[in-house]
Automatic annotation (TrEMBL):
The lineage of its organism: Bacteria, Pseudomonadati, Thermodesulfobacteriota, Syntrophobacteria, Syntrophobacterales. This is Type II toxin-antitoxin system HicB family antitoxin. InterPro entries: TTHA1013/TTHA0281-like. It comes from the Bacteria.
């Protein structure tokens, strides 16, 4: 299941810094924009999957 997020980013003296607009608590850095993007993806996966055991199942639901 893929999701689309908005990456907010800027350049410091040494690194690119960024966060996800939809999840501002997720923030990381990278030496390149590509590394920053990968680090944000990894940080998101770790946040949402941290307590989920192997063998989990997925089902789409609608929340109104």
């Amino acid at each position: 299941m893929s999701k689309r997020f908005t990456m907010i980013y800027w350049k410091s003296e040494k690194f690119w810094l960024g966060k996800l607009l939809e999840h501002p608590e997720i923030m990381t850095q990278g030496e390149t924009l590509e590394e920053l993007e990968e680090n944000l993806k990894d940080a998101y996966r770790m946040m949402v999957m941290e307590d989920v055991p192997d063998g989990y199942q997925i089902k789409d639901i609608i929340v109104v």
